[in-house]
Amino acid sequence: MKQSYFFESKQGLSDQSIDQLIRAKNEPDWMKDFRKKGYRFFCKSKLPVIKGIDLSEINFNEIYSFLKPIEKQVDQWEKLPADIKATYEKLNIPVWERKYFAGVSAQYESMVVYEKTKEELRRQGVIFVDMDTAVRQYGDKLQTLFGSVVAADENIFTALNSAFWSGGVFIYVPKNVKVSLPLQSYFYISRNQFGQFERTLILADEGSEVTYLEGCSAPVYSSYSLHAGLVEIIVKKRAKVRYITVQNWSKNIYNISIKRAVVEENGTIDWTVASIGSKMTISYPTSILKGEGARSSHTGLTVATAGQVLNSGARVIHAALRTSSNIVSKSLSLKGGKSIFTGNIRVPKEISGTKSFMQCHSLILDNQSASLSFPSLTIENNQAQIGHEATFGGLSEEQLFYLKSRGLTEEEATALLINGYIAPVIKDMPPDYIVELRKLTEMEIKGG
């Protein structure tokens, strides 16, 4: 049964579809100018050539850029249409909201259909709203921030998102406010030949702290869809942002995820990224350590199975004195899947006191699978303390033999070893997230 929508754009990405989008959202002139600038660059750009990645199936002329499932956003799950509500209940989102989160945003296709924030956050001055509402209510603040971390004219996908973005969230945490419970957004795609282009902006003011979790999924359908999300994070002096992503798109989604943070003096950005699904993923969160003493850490997990090519990693630019970073990436390749690690650390000549370490570990479970690693260290200052290590291999035959000798089956022993392998990546997630991620990984191993 075909999904019905309150509003549905025509297929194809055009100047007319941007005008239609602007009218539908009743956006101000500055946003119109921003979109048009992005579209002009998009029109003259070509798909990139990336080693190990095939983007040739993507046809922008057949993509629906804007699908609005309901007329108005709601703040109670019961008010959602039955089919959308059932989807989020299957994903356990209402339960997780009650147990773990200070605020929840749920996006279905192009629209945030549900949003709720605890009253305590509002009293503290914390803003957690969908991006469309933010443009209307906080336009003066957003106008100077939009595109300040990721420019529209950097590449075809930054331009695509800038021109056709819809949904996503805006988070602002005032000075010295520490948000004790995480904020969460969940993104869902139910339609083939659809482009989901949400845009998220997080501003953590001086001395503040916040944790943001992002989840995503989609059902399996006959042809592909495209996800090209964009995240900009601004970490002010002594502030701390933790950003956690669990990506579980179906295996007919092309996933291009652009995430970047600018970190000021003694600020901290912590990234945790788990990539389980999608047909193809390109995702390397970038940290620009702009202020003295700024810090970043990146912990990543990639699980690639049959038909998947997942290219993930991290980039760090040390742009100030006495900055530090740490990158830990773990990948698992099986049943013909291919995982690719792309990592980059850059230290300019004039930057001293830098400490950074990058490590990537790859586990390959059969002869049909592959794991590639492309680490890059651009170090121009000879006083920088930089380290890198990489390991490739399979499961330990000795450990498997020992576990089977204690009564475990081959499948059980394999699952136990893999759970130990991924434990460092997921240890700081909410408990139900850890359970869910372990289940997802076990299902991939078993072919679920």
Task: Sum this structure up briefly.
The chain has two domains: 7-283, no CATH class; 397-448, no CATH class. It has helices at 15-25, 29-43, 82-90, 93-100, 119-124, 131-137, 139-145, 156-164, 397-405, 410-426, 431-446, and strands spanning 7-8, 67-68, 103-108, 111-117, 127-130, 169-173, 183-188, 195-196, 199-204, 209-217, 225-235, 240-248, 253-263, 268-275, 280-283, 286-289, 295-304, 309-318, 324-333, 338-347, 355-364, 370-379, 385-393.
Structural class: alpha/beta
Low-confidence stretches: none
Number of domains: 2
Percent helix: 25-40%
| Percent of sequence in beta strands | 35-45%
**Rg estimate, integer Å:** 21 Å
Distance between the termini: 24 Å
**Largest β sheet strand count, sense and barrel closure:** 11 strands, mixed
The 3D shape can be described as globular
- Oligomeric nature of the chains: single chain
- Count of strand segments: 23
Query: What's the total helix number?
Result: 11
Task: Give the overall pLDDT as a whole number.
Answer: 91
What is the topology?
Elements: E1 7-8, H1 15-25, H2 29-43, E2 67-68, H3 82-90, H4 93-100, E3 103-108, E4 111-117, H5 119-124, E5 127-130, H6 131-137, H7 139-145, H8 156-164, E6 169-173, E7 183-188, E8 195-196, E9 199-204, E10 209-217, E11 225-235, E12 240-248, E13 253-263, E14 268-275, E15 280-283, E16 286-289, E17 295-304, E18 309-318, E19 324-333, E20 338-347, E21 355-364, E22 370-379, E23 385-393, H9 397-405, H10 410-426, H11 431-446
Parallel strand pairs: 3-7, 6-9, 7-10, 8-11, 9-11, 10-12, 11-13, 12-14, 13-15, 13-16, 14-17, 15-18, 16-18, 17-19, 18-20, 19-21, 20-22, 21-23
Antiparallel strand pairs: 1-2, 3-4, 5-6
Helix pairs in contact: 1-2, 2-8, 6-7, 9-10, 10-11
